[in-house]
Prior knowledge:
By secondary structure, the chain is α+β, with helices and mostly antiparallel strands. It is built from eleven helices and ten strands. It is 45% helix and 22% strand.
Amino acid sequence: xxxxxxxxxxxxxxxxxxxxxxxxxxxxxxxxxxxxxxxxxxxxxxxxxxxxxxxxxxxxxxxxxxxxxxxxxxxxxxxxxxxxxxxxxxxxxxxxxxxxxxxxxxxxxxxxxxxxxxxxxxxxxxxxxxxxxxxxxxxxxxxxxxxxxxxxxxxxxxxxxxxxxxxxxxxxxxxxxxxxxxxxxxxxxxxxxxxxxxxxxxxxxxxxxxxxxxxxxxxxxxxxxxxxxxxxxxxxxxxxxxxxxxxxxxxxxxxxxxxxxxxxxxxxxxxxxxxx
Length: 276
């Protein structure tokens, strides 16, 4: 990096199901510094502190400057480039999780152009900088980052969002189902029972989960149980079999297959990593 450049960033875990900060940081870019065209697997919000640059996505381009914000949506091709004469400095936060799509809908930023103006006040910058200031890999850091991320999203809801009628949208059914899973994940529950807890049909439950959580209910249940198993292995020091049964996996061999599919290595290797 030259003396005119700097970058401070953090990359976090992607295993928090509800809401997790994937990355955050601040960077002063070199002239013509660029990213993309490419896709991200999460939401990524940049606030421009100073300078200028160009953001492009979905067939449109915007020339942006200090005080403006641009949003990179998950799995949508985007690119951005710093100005050659007055390159920008920006701070950013990247995040995702099962709660993220609904929260982002409430901000009102998904329906229109993915750029907006925060005005003369520095609230957007200050809230992102709070996330950066507590970034780290510890459990306490993750809790603080999520707390400040929710604060930031609530600010966007207040300034750009529209009040949502959760009864009309159907999200309250999803919430009821999620609460039932949270209470009952360790038991041999099925999709029929989850749908019954939300007082809707299985097909309706499927459509709502895909709409709001971007995954069917059986996949959400599996992911939820896997997160609990990770907690039992790491924090409670249970054996693989004990963690599997405690998290609701009745077959340890099936648990091992699911674990390896999502984590890339078997649970026995994970426990060895913890022990070492």
